[in-house]
UniProtKB/TrEMBL annotation:
Protein name, as recorded: 8-amino-7-oxononanoate synthase
Species in which this protein is naturally found: Streptomyces morookaense (Streptoverticillium morookaense)
Gene: hemA
Cofactors (names): pyridoxal 5'-phosphate
Top-level taxon in the UniProt lineage: Bacteria
Keywords associated with the record: Acyltransferase, Transferase
PANTHER family reported for this sequence: 2-AMINO-3-KETOBUTYRATE COENZYME A LIGASE, MITOCHONDRIAL, CLASS II AMINOTRANSFERASE/8-AMINO-7-OXONONANOATE SYNTHASE
Coiled coil region boundaries: none
Entry-linked Pfam families: Aminotran_1_2
Species lineage: Bacteria, Bacillati, Actinomycetota, Actinomycetes, Kitasatosporales
Catalytic reaction list: 6-carboxyhexanoyl-[ACP] + L-alanine + H(+) = (8S)-8-amino-7-oxononanoate + holo-[ACP] + CO2
Alphabetical GO biological process terms: tetrapyrrole biosynthetic process
Family: Belongs to the class-II pyridoxal-phosphate-dependent aminotransferase family.
Length: 402
């Protein structure tokens, strides 16, 4: 029988947290978390307090998390292997599927080895912080719009850091030229930047790396499953596989959970042996890895899904443009809709949810600069044109009321 423990009075030191939370509220930066129950039989919908709501900000770009093959694979694997692996990767947590999936990921990206982590954030943080700290006198060159996981991994390493303006090849070239050719260097950048939806000048950056004798670390998070003939990312789309390290995730286009890094054997073996966030955390369940393996197979043969996603993005942009709604017309499946002002973007988000049954999360500082508040909208393959028209009409009405 469950009993209720007595609650201690809060310590006086906790007052500072209450004050800081109130400051966030006053600045319009307090994050709201809406409990959802995603519905398999109605893709893109979730239940909230008995009400069905359409989700327009999902990272499940291809709708794979609801694919019957993935659900079947995970359920069947659970009946055989259970709900967890019972330990970290080095303590009985490395399943046969972990090994098979890592082998397939390495081949997918044309690398010697791949290493699976509990999330994409952990993959970036642990790999970068471990590798950079191991190389004496290393200097890292980081794009100004890199994801927080990349930034934190670089900072934790303690190495020298140079931040170059976003996608500015000339500035990066000049920065690299300030260091001797034999100085260890690593360029860290992304293929698709999630807040603006823009692509990096990948081949130009890799050209610079060769010219200046630098290593490269490429985050393909938002391109995995979407770009390239088999969905291996922007590198595959361009046919340019020179990046030394490639990071990807399972929790977006592949529809499950986890992240990985692919690259040379020895450095990733070193990470496997030294990264605390890899060594001392419970392994992802084998059932989840079996579902991911099936998702990978479907994504690799998913040209129809990729086509439908990009067609939807084009249709949605055209509909927004026709109604005079401001958005960033980037060369990707991501559609950032600009709603400047932290209070305004939150108010529009609330109206969409309450009046139209549409859930789209406001994005504000520090994820984007103040004044650059927005919605990051996605229209996966299952979205119909009627649904997209409904979304645009609702958004127009809510923006006009503000």
């Amino acid at each position: 029988m469950m009993t209720t423990a007595s609650v201690r009075q809060p310590h006086a030191a906790f007052d500072v947290f209450g004050q800081k939370i109130e400051e966030l509220r006053q600045e319009g930066l307090y994050r709201e978390f809406i409990p959802c129950g995603h519905l398999v039989d109605e893709p893109g919908s979730t239940s909230h307090q008995g009400r069905k709501v359409q989700v327009w900000c999902t990272n499940d770009y291809l709708g794979m998390s609801r694919h019957p093959d993935l659900i079947k694979s995970q359920c069947e694997s659970t009946t055989v292997h259970g709900t967890g692996n019972g330990g970290s990767r080095n303590i009985a947590g490395t399943s046969t599927t972990h090994v098979e999936l890592e082998d397939r990921l390495a081949v997918w990206h044309g690398k010697e080895r791949a290493l699976i982590f509990s999330s994409g954030y952990v993959a970036n943080f642990e790999t970068l912080s471990t590798l950079l700290a191991a190389v004496p006198d290393m200097v890292v060159f980081s794009d100004a719009l890199n994801h927080r996981s990349l930034i934190e991994g670089i900072v934790r390493s303690g190495c020298e850091k140079v931040v170059f303006p976003h996608n500015d090849v000339a500035a990066l070239d000049a920065a690299l030229a300030q260091y001797a050719a034999d100085r260890p260097k690593l360029i860290v950048f992304e293929s698709v930047y999630s807040m603006d939806g823009d692509r990096s000048p990948l081949s130009s950056i890799l050209d610079l790396a060769e010219r200046h004798n630098a290593l490269t670390y490429l985050d393909e998070t938002h391109a995995i499953g979407i770009m390239g003939p088999t969905g291996a990312g922007l590198s595959e789309e361009l046919g340019d596989h020179r990046a030394d390290f490639v990071q990807g995730v399972f929790g977006k286009a592949l529809g499950t959970v986890g992240g990985y890094v692919a690259g040379p054997d020895a450095p990733l073996d070193y990470v496997r042996s030294h990264a605390p966030g890899f060594i001392f955390t419970t392994a992802l369940p084998q059932a989840s890895m079996d579902a991911t393996l099936r998702g990978l197979e479907l994504v690799q043969d998913g040209n129809d899904l990729r086509r439908d996603l990009l067609d939807n993005a084009r249709y949605l942009k055209a509909a927004l443009r026709a109604e005079g709604i401001d958005f960033i017309d980037a060369e990707s499946h991501l559609v950032p809709v600009m709603v400047p002002g932290s209070e305004r973007v939150r108010a529009v988000s609330r109206r969409l949810f309450q009046e139209f049954g549409i859930y789209v999360q406001p994005i504000n500082f520090p994820s984007v600069p103040r004044g650059g508040e927005r919605f990051r909208v996605t229209a996966p393959p299952y979205r119909t044109r009627e649904q997209m028209d409904y979304f645009v009409a609702a958004l127009k009405q809510c923006l006009a009321q503000d």
